[in-house]
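Bit of a strange request maybe. I'm writing a small parser for structure token strings and I need a real example to test against, not something I typed by hand. Could someone generate the tokens for this chain?
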Amino acid sequence: SASPAGRPCVDCHAFEFMQRALQDLKKTAYSLDTRTETLLLRAEKRGLCDCFHAIH
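Reply from user aminoacidic:
Good idea to test on real output. This should exercise your parser:
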């Protein structure tokens, strides 16, 4: 039995939570190493794409 179309998977919810957390970190610690931040965002984007591929 497949999941209903349009139902976000757990990974997508985790991505949204992590994205909000990162945005808060940017506001309070904007001077942190931007290269590390870029790597984190790149890893999250890859995870989100994997999630969408799993749905479709």
